[in-house]
Amino acid sequence: MKTFFWNCGQRILHKIAMIAPGGYSLRPKLHRIRGASIGSKVWISQYVYLDEIHPESVSIGDNSSIGIRTSIIAHLYWGPRKKENPDKPVCIERDVFIGPHCVILPGVHIGEGAVVPAGTVVSRNVPAHALWSSPKCHPMARVGTPLTAEHSYEAFSQGLTPWSRKKG
After folding, report:
1. Beta strands 90-92 and 141-143: pairing type?
2. Rounded CA gap, 123 and 128, in Å?
3. What confidence tens digit (pLDDT) does each residue in 3-57 have?
4. Three-state SS across 76-88?
5. Residues 51-82: pLDDT tens digits?
6. Nearest to 118, CA basis, from 93, 94, 100, 92
7. With b meaning 16 or more CB within 10 Å and e meaning fewer, what string describes 24-44?
């Protein structure tokens, strides 16, 4: 029963931290109470998702900024934690800037002074003092069957054909 109330309390604190005022004060403090390791002078924007189940697996260094609607995820599994599915710590070092709408995946280490622009999905380690960005977007396939409620996902995926990358 204690675990149930602890988990409920964690989730309530998480929801409050997402919308509370105080990017330099209250929001970081609430995430510290949840178990995250957060340095001093850290800015956490509104609607930041900081792993709901394993906040203790997230560390953010001094003087870093986390942009609005960024998600920091330290686990990718369903159900209870098991030996074969441990959480994978996310380490964001000091003086890091993470733009809005980024996704930081489990096990990622972002080096000191790095900059991650808006909308970037970070799936591997970022070196210190690097400007890190996703590759330029490009079409991957032609959509033959739209992905809508009228069609199944299977029909959508079967309707995909590779996009021709002919030079011209």
Report:
1. unpaired
2. 16
3. 777 778 888 999 999 999 999 999 999 999 999 999 999 999 999 999 988 899 9
4. CCCCCCECCECCC
5. 988 899 999 999 999 999 999 999 887 666 55
6. 100
7. eeebbebbbebebbbbeebbb
